[in-house]
Amino acid sequence: MRESDPRIVLGLHRSRYERRILTSALELGIDAIDTSFNYRGFSAHSALAEIGSDLLPRFTLSTKVGFFPAAGQAEHSLDPGRLRRAMEQTNRDLGRAPDLVFLHNPERSLTGSPNAAKDALAMACTALAVAATEGLCGAWGISSWDPRPLRELAVGSMPRPDALMVRGGLLAGIDVLEASETLAARWDLGAGQLWGMSPFGGKATDPLWGQLDPQVFIQDPDDGLSALQAAFRTAYWLPQVGRVAVGTDNPSHLRELVDALRYKADARSLRTYRRLLCERAGRQPV
C-alpha cells in the first residue's frame, strides 16, 4: 500500500459505485473521494454507504448540493432551505457528516439583476457556512463549471469558502482559467484549497488525446509517460491547483494517474500556451 497522497481525489460522477475502486484507491494512496447529492439519480450517497460503509471512515469525503429532483429530472436551486434539507439528508444517507460540501454550480441560478444575483449567492453560501458550524459538514466550498459569472458577485459580506473546485486542464478556455484565478485571489485561497476537475474535458477516451502531444508541457518526459498522463499532470497548472478530482472505475487507469504525479511542469511551455489562448481570444495576456 502506498503512502497517502492528497493530490488526487477519486471523483464518482459517472461511477458504477463498485467496492473494488474504493479499495484500489486506498491501496494506491488515494484517500479522498468526491460525489454529489444528485449523482446516480440522487442515490449516490446511499449507494456509497451500501458498498463501503466500513471503508468510508478511511476517506476524506466531499460532496455537493444545488441540484434537486423535480418531475423525473433535476432542477437547480440556491434556496437556503432546500440546501439545508439536502445536507441533512446527505448525513442520513451517508451515515456520517461529509468533510466538505460544495455549493454545486451556483452560476446556474444567478439570474435577474446583479444585486439579486449577489444576494442569492450570499444567502446560499451563508446556509452552507452555518451548516458547517453546526456540524453538518466539516467545511464548505464552491464547485463551479463556469466561474465567470461569479467574479463580480463574490464581493462584500459574502462568507469566504474553505475551498474552490473549478474546471481545468488543456481544454479549459482562458476566460475560465482567469476567472478561477481571480476568485482564488479574491478569497485568498492557497493552492491547497483549490481543486481542479474534468482534466480531460469530460472524456479520457476522446480521440483528441491520441492526436495531441501534451508531453511538451512536461519537464524531461520519458518513454514511460503517456499522452493521457501528461494531460492529467498538466491540469495541475491550468489553473494551479493542489488537487484534482478525476473519475474512473478502472484500477489500472487510476494507477497510471498516480504514476503521473512524479513529473513536473515545463513553465515556459505553459506560459506560451496561455499566451496563445489569449491571442486566440483576441486579447493580450494578463
What class would the helix/strand composition place it in? alpha/beta
Task: Specify the CATH architecture.
Answer: Alpha-Beta Barrel
The description of the largest β-sheet is:
8 strands, parallel, barrel
Mean pLDDT: 93
State the CATH topology. Answer: TIM Barrel
The radius of gyration over CA amounts to 19 Å
User: Low-confidence parts lasting 5 or more residues at pLDDT below 50?
Assistant: none
Name of the level-1 CATH class: Alpha Beta
Proportion in helices = 25-40%
Q: Which shape, going by the Cα principal axes? A: globular
Strand content: 15-25%
Order of helices and strands: EHEHHEEEHEHEEHEHEHH
**Overall structural domain count:** 1
Number of strands: 10
Number of helices: 9
CATH superfamily: NADP-dependent oxidoreductase domain
Strand order in space, largest sheet: 1-2-3-6-7-8-9-10
- Termini Cα gap: 44 Å
